[in-house]
Specification:
This protein is of the alpha/beta class. About 30% of the residues lie in helices and about 20% in strands.
């Protein structure tokens, strides 16, 4: 099966449509006010409503309230929720759509927390002190290979670029790859040539 490609941190309709046109399977909408890629509920809804129906809409949250998440599901038609904070395993199970729990992987010890979360998938990102993601930092892919054996589909993030995504897919064989800063011209603004190159490289490597 072809590796799923998620373009995260979409902040405007043009970037969302460009990602869809380039073959993205999923786009990520960031509902975290401290992120440079944060979008309001209204903007996210406008983006989501313009996307082709086959593009998966992922809402990205950091320690949200249940009410905030339910509103986003309702107004944006989210298909998947991605939790990047200190959400409990119980909180992640509260919602009527699929869920992903993100982990910042520092070392092998970091992997011990994964099985506590019976979400539909786990996202592995690089550990950077005081940063919750979107840093562009890369982590040890051998740890992702180890995580594969723990029983959930893996979304591989952290430092992926058009230049290295094919190697990452061949080595780790993740269910999905997730990129944000690696295809940007500036935080929150996608570089369309990079988006196209990333998706082409990812799909070629997993064909």
């Amino acid at each position: 099966m072809s590796t799923i490609v998620k373009i995260c941190g979409i902040t405007n309709i043009d970037d969302g449509l460009a990602a869809a046109d380039a073959g993205a399977d999923a786009i990520g909408l960031m509902f975290f006010e401290q992120s440079p890629r944060n979008v309001s509920l209204q903007t996210a809804s406008e983006i989501a409503n313009r996307l082709p129906p086959y593009v998966i809409k992922v809402g990205v949250f950091v320690n949200p309230s249940e009410e905030v998440v339910m509103r986003a599901i309702s107004e944006c038609g989210l298909n998947i929720l991605q939790f990047h904070g200190e959400e409990t395993p119980e909180f992640c199970q509260l919602f009527p759509v699929m869920t992903i729990k993100a982990f910042r992987v520092k070392d092998e010890e970091s992997l011990k927390a994964l099985p506590e979360y019976q979400t539909d998938a786990w996202l592995l990102d690089a550990y950077v002190a005081d940063k919750l993601g979107g840093t562009g930092a890369k982590f040890n892919w051998d740890l992702a290979i180890a995580a594969q054996k723990l029983g959930r589909p893996i979304f591989l993030a952290g430092g992926l670029t058009p230049e290295n995504v094919a190697d990452a897919i061949r080595k780790v064989q993740p269910y999905a790859v997730d990129v944000s800063s690696g295809v940007e011209s500036a935080p929150g603004k996608k570089d369309y040539a990079k988006v196209q190159a990333f998706i082409k490289a990812a799909k070629s490597a997993s064909a």
